[in-house]
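Task: sequence design from structure.
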């Protein structure tokens, strides 16, 4: 039987839970399940447990050795930690930061200008998995880029380097890195001209380094199988899934993923009017973008949500009880709200504050002189995360409606968006399938919005 006629298994190995989706050849969801991520033993133990569950329920499940039919993404072991080293913060370093976020990385360090000894020490202390080296437009300034390449090559920062700066200086940069045996991957310049950001090549290079150097180095699994199955960092897969969702629907999409440690916002929008023809900003906005708010989370970062709500002047409902709940879940991150109790309402209130704050930060200008991100034409606002998937009747929609009616946060909310929840958690699967099974990916993405499988897969 041809591979195209067999089921496909997509798995997200998260930092806390491992989620799996078993898909039919046309992309229809056959089964899904989740179990705790087995980071204390081998992360594939948890994957095998889910495979056994599907098999026990009578499904045809591919063997894990079948790397054509089994596709994984991962954020276990802290996910992908990226440092950006650039020339000037509001130009190349900012472009690198935005590209890093779009590649599914958590940007843990940004250095600008010529690296000094103290700068290199600070970079090393933040323990990046990858260093993104950027600087200069093509044919522009090369001095700082070469200086930084030289300092990185001779430093004790062991992370591989993705070179995505002035291509006219590429040969000299490579010479500096090869002189000390530094691992590196070349990419096109993220900022080839002022006002033009080109993320695709650097994003692909970061993914390549993540798969070749990072996954195997985190000690998550014994042997090479896990590394051969992983296609992307989870946030990278989700952004690709959002891109496929926008393509399947033909409309702009925004996703708010409320997690235990961070709240991520994804947007795929189509520039219109003068935005489609003019480049008014020094660092052009990314129309397919992701932002990560590391202080906004439902468990590990719960205190940060309350602090941010105060800073944003957001009304906090049941403030005293919510404060007690935040302290409890922060100390015991595995805590789940008891069904039918006030705890569910408190968790939703925490999620509401995180979602509104994250949406504001995603939409507001990143630098002085920039305009807010133009989200007014978004037609689908999708929510993701356990607080939404397990909310009692009407709770998830009310939370998302609060984002859509937030008119006091320095941004323009979508004017006619339909709120929905990725209740089956399929966006990651659509992203994983996009490269090797594009038609199936489109069908899977369409199911998130209840589009007919046949129509979405065309």
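Answer:
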């Amino acid at each position: 039987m041809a591979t195209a006629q067999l089921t496909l298994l997509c798995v997200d190995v998260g930092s806390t839970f491992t989620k799996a989706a078993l898909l039919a050849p046309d992309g229809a969801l056959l089964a899904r399940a989740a179990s705790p991520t087995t980071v204390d033993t081998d992360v594939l133990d948890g994957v095998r447990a889910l495979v056994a569950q599907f098999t026990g329920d009578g499904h045809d499940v591919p063997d894990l050795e079948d790397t054509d039919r089994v596709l994984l993404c991962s954020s276990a072991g802290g996910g992908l930690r990226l440092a950006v080293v650039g020339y000037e913060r509001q130009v190349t370093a900012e472009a690198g930061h935005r590209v890093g976020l779009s590649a599914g990385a958590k940007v843990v360090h940004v250095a600008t200008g010529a690296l000094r000894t103290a700068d290199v020490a600070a970079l090393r202390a933040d323990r990046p998995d990858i260093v993104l080296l950027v600087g200069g437009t093509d044919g522009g300034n090369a001095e700082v880029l070469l200086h930084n390449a030289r300092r990185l090559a001779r430093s004790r920062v062991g992370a591989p380097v993705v070179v995505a700066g002035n291509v006219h200086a590429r040969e000299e940069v490579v010479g500096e890195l090869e002189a000390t045996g530094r691992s590196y991957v070349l990419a096109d310049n993220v900022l080839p001209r002022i006002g033009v950001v080109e993320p695709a090549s650097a994003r692909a290079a970061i993914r390549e380094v993540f798969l070749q150097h990072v996954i195997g180095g985190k000690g998550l699994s014994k042997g090479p199988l896990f590394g051969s199955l992983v296609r992307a960092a989870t946030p990278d897969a989700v952004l690709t899934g959002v891109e496929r969702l926008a393509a399947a629907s033909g409309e702009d999409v925004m996703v708010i993923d409320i997690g235990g440690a961070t709240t991520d916002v994804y947007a795929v929008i189509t520039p219109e009017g003068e935005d489609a023809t003019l480049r008014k900003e020094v660092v052009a906005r990314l129309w397919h973008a992701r932002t990560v708010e590391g202080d906004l989370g439902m468990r590990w970062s719960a205190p940060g949500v309350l602090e941010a709500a105060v800073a944003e002047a957001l009304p906090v409902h049941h403030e005293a009880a919510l404060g007690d709940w935040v302290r409890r879940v922060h100390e015991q991150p595995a805590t789940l709200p008891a069904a039918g109790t006030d705890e569910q309402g408190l968790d939703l209130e925490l999620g509401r504050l995180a979602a509104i704050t994250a949406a504001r930060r995603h939409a507001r200008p990143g630098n002085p002189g920039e305009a807010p991100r133009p989200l007014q034409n978004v037609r689908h606002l999708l929510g993701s995360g356990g607080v939404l998937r397990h909310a009692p009747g009407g709770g998830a929609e009310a939370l998302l409606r609060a984002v859509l009616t937030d008119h006091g946060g320095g941004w323009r909310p979508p004017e006619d968006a339909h709120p929905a929840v990725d209740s089956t958690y399929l966006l990651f699967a659509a992203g994983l399938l996009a490269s090797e099974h594009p038609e199936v990916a489109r069908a899977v993405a369409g199911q998130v919005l209840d589009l007919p499988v046949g129509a979405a897969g065309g």
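Confidence is low (pLDDT under 50) at residues 452-458.
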